[in-house]
Design brief:
Largest sheet: none
Structural class: mainly alpha
Shape: globular
Number of helices: 11
Strand content: under 5%
Number of domains: 2
Number of strands: 0
Order of helices and strands: HHHHHHHHHHH
């Protein structure tokens, strides 16, 4: 009887159009990381349970495009900054949100007024804060964890080395940020260049559940897909992207 990993690999090889085979025949390919730390944080926070076109529509719109336009930076991903372009750091993002205030940042810069995810504690009166407030708190926490993460090189180094199973990143842990859950921490690291992780979001979870006939825990999903990626000979991040696109396209049919 095949193991869970073998079931996943068999399904992928049989059903993905085209099958994942290295080095060049891939679904979606391997997404490039952002070049600005600020965009990593914005994407990670605003994409949670949102249609991705609201975050980045690839045409300069969405949260990413509007922020980039406001800051005068490139919103595209790649390997190097454009000539004369300065890196937009986490400190830059923090300073801008502080200067404008989370509400004005949400309304006037990114034009997105969605609120923080999660239940509102009884101790907090009124409505949940804008996600711009979560971006502020996440950026500040990253600088607390690793001061060098203000720059892309430091953020990428942290993303490669961090242990997200550490209780410090869980609720009530010392690095916990309200509104940032297991999926978002993983996705942030992937945006910063970590190719060994997957984000067990709705698409990825539904895929694994469909293939296995059961719903594993999020850490189990990460481990299973990392093992499957190893057998398939592709980075886990690429497999994640392939499954995500496969499930999104399947939903459209």
């Amino acid at each position: 009887m095949p193991t869970d990993v073998e079931k996943l690999v068999q399904y992928i090889r049989a059903n993905f159009p085209p099958a994942i085979v290295p080095p060049s025949v891939q679904i979606g390919g391997l997404p490039s990381p952002f070049l600005h730390p600020s965009l990593c944080v914005l994407d990670a926070v605003y994409s949670a349970q949102q249609h991705y076109s609201a975050v980045d529509d690839k045409k300069g719109g969405g949260v990413i495009g509007r922020y980039a336009g406001y800051r005068g930076i490139s919103h595209t991903k790649g390997t190097s900054l454009e000539d004369g372009e300065m890196e937009d750091t986490l400190t830059d993002l923090i300073n801008l949100i502080y200067a404008l205030g989370p509400e004005s940042f949400a309304k006037d810069v990114v034009h997105n007024e969605t609120k923080r995810l999660g239940k509102q504690p009884k101790s907090e009166k009124g409505k949940p804060p804008f996600r711009s407030q979560v971006c502020l708190e996440l950026a500040q926490m990253l600088l607390t964890i690793e001061p060098a993460s203000s720059y892309m090189s430091g953020l990428s180094k942290w993303a490669e080395e961090v242990d997200l199973e550490n209780k410090a990143y869980k609720p009530r842990g010392k690095f916990y940020v309200k509104g940032i859950g297991y999926d978002t921490w993983h996705y942030l690291c992937m945006l910063a260049g970590n190719e060994d992780l997957v984000k067990p979001d709705v698409h990825i979870t539904n895929f694994v559940k469909c293939v296995l006939g059961r719903k594993p825990t999020k850490p189990e999903i990460v481990g299973l897909l990392q093992e499957a990626a190893k057998i398939l000979g592709v980075p886990p991040k690429q497999l994640d992207n392939s499954i995500w696109n496969y499930m999104r396209n399947k939903k459209k049919r």
